[in-house]
């Protein structure tokens, strides 16, 4: 039984090229074509193909979103993403959304055919120069810097104000200490609370204790 | 003792005589001699006193027992000492004569009992037998007296009699009706009270006197006492039978005239012998009435306690081992207590307060512990946070360790007080914080002065005051300043209120005399409102242009004792006009800045377009031209050449595609729309590292998988791009940090390096840092904010913040909420 395929790309020329390429293989059968996201979803519902070959960049509902929906609503259909982006970020995102294969538009016809067959067989495929290894390395790298402590985003002034406010000083007192105007002190205090997502003096003190700014015996 | 001695001596005499008697059979003497000897022995050793005496009183013979009976050592001693028995031995000498006479007249023994004097003067009692002894001629030879000392017996009998008399008197003295029953239930003794009672209360008193059958009387009792009688009878039988020892029952026994109660007590007669029962009826009416009264009073107080409009309770304090109060137990509560505290009696009685209600305020324990331990009563008004109620009450100490509380709910009153205080506070705040200078003044001196003038017949006040300028002092300057607000202190540059309080005169300059006159006239006319322009001066001498308004506080129209004076500073108004002009100038300035900015934006846009046009023309155009040339294939071209050209063309197209993608990414990375800020930044930072060799640490929180809207994402991306570009261009470092953090309300981005830095204010002011300005404008366009911290050689830190999710609107709303509260 041949692999049934739905083609989704907003460029008519690309669809035609793909169809004429795929129809030369006996084990592949193009059931239909869709020109945008909505059309794709309608055709999926009707045709229930083995494989959906979809352009990453489609107007309206894009390829990534389609992938997510297919994974959710048509789990028996495998998705092969066609993309002009060799960027790992896209690949990671596509795989995360449930794509079975990611094929660059500059890939050879053979690579595309291979990708469709692998996807239909339930395996994963990335066209060269992409590789699983590189993707994993990239995923790790993006986590490289680690988690941000919001305290780091405070400006020096805001940190000073935070420390004084946590110790219970009023804005005028803080202003006096830092030789700034009370209004500026108040602005700093409001700013730092916004940055840290704090909403009251109580939360501010709690934060200060949690962070070790205030020592509690 | 003495008798004992005598007794033992006589015993010894007996023994010695028996020895002598044993000896006797060995003697062989004539019969009469023997008989005489025998009599003598008997006489000498008889245990009773024997005297042979002549009627005149002279003793012929006295035996040892007789001598000893009177305290003499020997018969000889007695016989030589006693010469006149009537006076020496007889207590009553007359008795001696009587006894003698009787003896002489009688035949045989005369018997009597006599009292004698012992040798030491004490009295002995003895029974006397006396007879005449005749000689052979029938003439009186002597009198023989046999005396037996019965003093001891006499004493015992007297004591017994006395005891019996005492017992009877004692039971007679008892107020209780007492009788003693024998084992058959027959009365064998009653006391006087019994007899009196029987006499007073019963027609047939013989039934319950001595000898009557009490049990039978009980058994046959009828009417209201039948039941009590039956119980008493059973008890008597039980006690006689030995089953119980005592029984008592209280019973009413009302007569027609009075209410009476009795207690019947039945007990076995102590001591051995036959079973006897003591039965006592005692009138306990007084006790019963007292008890009844007590019960009645208890009932009344209980009613009072129960129905008190106040909650009331009795508690006992619990202390730890140091005597410090730690809790208290509830002993009794009334129904109002239950209602006020919303508890049920059963739930609290016997319970520890803090165990039952752990959130109970500790203050209660302080108050109650003090009362219970010191005994000092306390009045309290206290808030019970567990009930959200205020209670007023008092606690006192009925006995040490306990305390009694009575209290009522004053929550409403407290609320009213609070509301009053709030309202007062509000008006006080309104007064104090009003930007207008407000004075509370007392114009009654003016009013009084004017009334006096009127009474003394002055009608033309204006004329009067014009003629007597001094009079204005009395007319107005003596009015009193009661209070002033903060704005007043500021307006007059006064240090504190005290400097302005007191006579109005001290703060009114002579320049204000016309205002004073007009005011006085207005008061005279009974006006309650007045307005005038007045020139005054601050305490430091600065001139003040004021509009003065006063109005009488409602309720004080008659005496003008409370007037509110307000001063509006026209000086300030003039100044604020100047300020407005300044603001207008500033506005104009910023409008011009805005125009400059727009012009620059247009210029930047034009530059970018020129750049794109150049790229398209120079780069893409050149490639396309080349491609066109490559694909210009002529018919007479050899096939290999064509194939080579096509291959060349494909290569060129690949290059072209790559170039187009680069340009497009540079203009705006599609990734920002497709994948969002974080993914784009990760990609960009990688690119940046590759291009600049500067290591960038990207840290983030709250942004993964989150979208912030195209405008914010673009701005954030551009600012980071610009920031990093600046680092590469100016900082001269090999490392930089990018931080992206988001809370629900705010997205914060930060680009920091530890490079050369610059003086940020100067850099921006000089307009050199067009890039920095552009960054700031981007942030501010979105309601955000951008801070640049930099100083020479200390690096640069650019922080931008973007409000999220309509945060601005919420902030504004919150502010409205705040003010309306």
Offer a quick outline of the entry:
The complex is a heterodimer of chains A (217) and B (821). Chain A has 10 helices and 6 strands; from the N terminus they run E-H-E-H-E-H-E-H-E-H-E-H-H-H-H-H. With 217 residues, chain A is an alpha/beta fold.
What does this protein structure show overall?
- The complex is a heterodimer of chains A (217) and B (821).
- Chain A has ten helices and six strands, in the order βαβαβαβαβαβααααα.
- Chain A has 217 residues and is of the alpha/beta class.
- Chain A has a six-stranded parallel beta sheet with strand order 2-1-3-4-5-6, sandwiched between helices.
- In chain A, helix 3 links the parallel strand 3 and strand 4.
- In chain A, helix 7 packs across helix 10.
- The longest helix of chain A has 15 residues.
- The model of chain A has no long low-confidence stretch (mean pLDDT 84).
- Chain B is of the alpha+beta class.
- Chain B has six domains: 153 residues, Beta-Lactamase (2-Layer Sandwich); 110 residues, PAS domain (Beta-Lactamase); 118 residues, 2-Layer Sandwich (Beta-Lactamase); 148 residues, Beta-Lactamase (2-Layer Sandwich), CATH 3.30.450.20; 31 residues; 148 residues, Heat Shock Protein 90 (2-Layer Sandwich).
- In chain B, the strands form five sheets. In chain B, strands 18-17-16-21-20-19 form a six-stranded antiparallel beta sheet. In chain B, strands 2-1-5-4-3 form a five-stranded antiparallel beta sheet, with helices on both faces. A five-stranded antiparallel beta sheet of chain B has the order 7-6-10-9-8, with helices on both faces.
- In chain B, a hairpin with a 5-residue loop joins strand 6 and strand 7.
- The radius of gyration of chain B is 68 Å and the shape is elongated.
- The N terminus and C terminus of chain B are likely disordered.
- At the A-B interface, helix 4 and helix 9 of A face helix 23, helix 24, helix 25, strand 22 and strand 23 of B.
């Amino acid at each position: 039984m041949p692999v049934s395929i739905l083609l989704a790309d907003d460029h008519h020329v690309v669809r035609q090229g793909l169809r004429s390429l795929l129809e030369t293989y006996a084990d592949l059968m193009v059931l239909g074509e869709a020109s945008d996201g909505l059309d794709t979803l309608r055709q999926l519902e009707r045709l229930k193909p083995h494989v959906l070959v979809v352009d990453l960049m489609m107007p309206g509902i894009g390829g990534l979103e389609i992938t997510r929906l297919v994974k959710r609503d048509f789990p028996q259909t495998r998705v092969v993403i066609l993309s002009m982006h060799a960027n790992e970020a896209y690949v990671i995102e596509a795989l995360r959304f449930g794509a079975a294969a990611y094929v660059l538009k500059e890939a050879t016809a053979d690579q595309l055919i291979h990708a469709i067959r692998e996807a239909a067989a339930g395996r994963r495929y990335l066209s060269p120069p992409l590789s699983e290894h590189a993707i994993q390395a990239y995923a790790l790298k993006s986590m490289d810097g680690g988690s941000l402590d919001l305290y780091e985003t405070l400006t020096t002034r805001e940190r000073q104000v935070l420390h004084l406010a946590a110790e219970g000083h009023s804005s005028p007192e803080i202003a006096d200490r830092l030789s700034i105007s009370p209004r500026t002190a108040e602005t700093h205090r409001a700013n730092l609370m916004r940055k840290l997502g704090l909403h009251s003096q109580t939360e501010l003190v709690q934060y200060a204790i949690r962070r070790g700014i205030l020592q509690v015996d | 003792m003495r008798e004992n001695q005598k007794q033992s001596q006589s015993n010894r005499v007996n023994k010695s005589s028996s020895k002598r008697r044993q000896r006797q059979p060995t003697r062989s003497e004539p019969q009469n001699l023997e008989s005489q000897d025998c009599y003598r022995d008997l006489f000498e050793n008889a245990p009773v006193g024997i005297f042979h005496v002549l009627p005149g009183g002279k003793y012929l013979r006295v035996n040892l027992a007789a001598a000893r009976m009177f305290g003499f050592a020997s018969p000889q001693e007695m016989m030589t000492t006693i010469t006149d028995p009537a006076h020496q031995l007889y207590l009553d000498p007359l008795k001696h004569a009587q006894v003698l006479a009787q003896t002489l007249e009688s035949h045989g023994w005369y018997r009597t009992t006599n009292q004698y004097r012992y040798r030491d003067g004490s009295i002995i009692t003895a029974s006397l037998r006396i007879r005449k002894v005749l000689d052979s001629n029938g003439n009186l030879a002597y009198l023989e007296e046999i005396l037996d000392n019965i003093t001891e017996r006499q004493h015992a009998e007297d004591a017994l009699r006395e005891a019996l008399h005492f017992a009877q008197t004692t039971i007679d003295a008892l107020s209780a009706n007492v009788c003693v029953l024998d084992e058959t239930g027959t009365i064998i003794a009653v006391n006087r009270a019994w007899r009196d009672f029987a006499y007073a209360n019963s027609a047939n008193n013989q039934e319950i006197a001595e000898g009557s059958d009490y049990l039978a009387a009980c058994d046959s009792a009828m009417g209201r006492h039948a039941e009590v009688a039956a119980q008493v009878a059973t008890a008597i039988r039980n006690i006689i039978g030995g089953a119980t020892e005592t029984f008592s029952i209280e019973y009413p026994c009302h007569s027609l005239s009075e209410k009476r109660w009795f207690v019947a007590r039945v007990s076995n007669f102590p001591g051995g012998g036959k079973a006897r029962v003591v039965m006592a009826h005692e009138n306990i009416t007084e006790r019963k009435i007292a008890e009844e009264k007590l019960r009645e009073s208890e009932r009344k107080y209980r009613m009072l306690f129960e129905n008190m409009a106040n909650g009331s309770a009795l508690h006992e304090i619990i202390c730890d081992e140091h005597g410090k109060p730690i809790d208290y137990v509830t002993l009794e509560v009334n129904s109002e207590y239950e209602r006020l505290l919303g508890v049920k009696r059963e739930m609290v009685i016997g319970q520890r307060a803090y165990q039952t209600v752990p959130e109970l305020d500790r203050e209660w324990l302080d108050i109650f512990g003090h009362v219970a331990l010191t005994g000092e009563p306390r009045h309290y008004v206290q808030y019970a946070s567990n009930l959200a109620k205020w209670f007023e009450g008092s606690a006192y100490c009925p006995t040490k360790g306990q305390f009694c509380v009575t209290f009522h709910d004053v929550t409403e009153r407290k609320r009213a007080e609070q509301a009053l205080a709030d309202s007062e506070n509000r008006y006080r705040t309104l007064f104090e914080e009003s930007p207008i200078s407000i004075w509370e003044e007392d114009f009654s001196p003016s009013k009084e002065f004017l009334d006096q003038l009127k009474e003394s017949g002055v009608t033309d006040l204006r004329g009067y005051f014009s003629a007597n300028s001094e009079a204005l002092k009395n007319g107005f300057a003596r009015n009193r300043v009661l209070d002033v607000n903060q704005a007043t202190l500021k307006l007059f540059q006064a240090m504190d209120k005290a400097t302005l309080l007191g006579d109005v005169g001290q703060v009114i300059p002579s320049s204000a005399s016309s205002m004073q006159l007009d005011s006085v006239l207005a008061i005279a006319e009974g006006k309650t409102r007045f307005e005038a322009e007045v020139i005054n001066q601050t305490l430091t001498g600065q001139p003040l242009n004021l509009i003065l308004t006063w109005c009488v506080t409602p309720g004080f129209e008659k005496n003008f004792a409370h007037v509110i004076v307000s001063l509006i500073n026209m000086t300030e108004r003039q100044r604020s006009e100047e300020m407005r002009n300044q603001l207008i100038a500033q506005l104009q300035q910023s409008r011009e800045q805005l125009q400059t900015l727009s012009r620059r934006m247009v210029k930047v846009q034009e530059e970018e377009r020129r750049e794109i046009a150049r790229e398209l023309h120079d780069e893409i155009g050149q490639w396309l031209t080349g491609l066109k040339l490559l694909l210009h294939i002529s018919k007479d071209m050899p096939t290999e050449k064509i194939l080579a050209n096509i291959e060349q063309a494909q290569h060129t197209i690949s290059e072209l595609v790559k170039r187009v993608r680069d340009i497009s990414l540079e203009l705006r990375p599609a990734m920002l729309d497709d994948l969002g800020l974080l993914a784009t930044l990760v990609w960009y930072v990688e690119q940046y590292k590759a291009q600049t060799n500067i290591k960038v640490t990207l840290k983030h929180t709250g942004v993964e998988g989150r979208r912030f809207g195209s405008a914010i994402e673009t701005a954030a991306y551009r600012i980071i791009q610009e920031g990093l570009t600046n680092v590469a261009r100016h900082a001269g470092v090999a490392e930089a940090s990018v931080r992206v953090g988001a809370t629900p309300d705010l997205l914060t981005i930060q680009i920091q390096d530890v490079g050369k830095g610059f003086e940020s204010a100067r850099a921006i002011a000089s307009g050199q840092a067009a890039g920095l300005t552009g960054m700031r404008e981007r942030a501010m366009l979105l309601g955000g904010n951008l801070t640049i911290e930099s100083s020479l050689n200390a690096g640069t830190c650019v922080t931008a913040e973007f409000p999220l999710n309509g945060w601005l609107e919420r902030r504004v709303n919150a502010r409205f909420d705040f003010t309306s509260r």
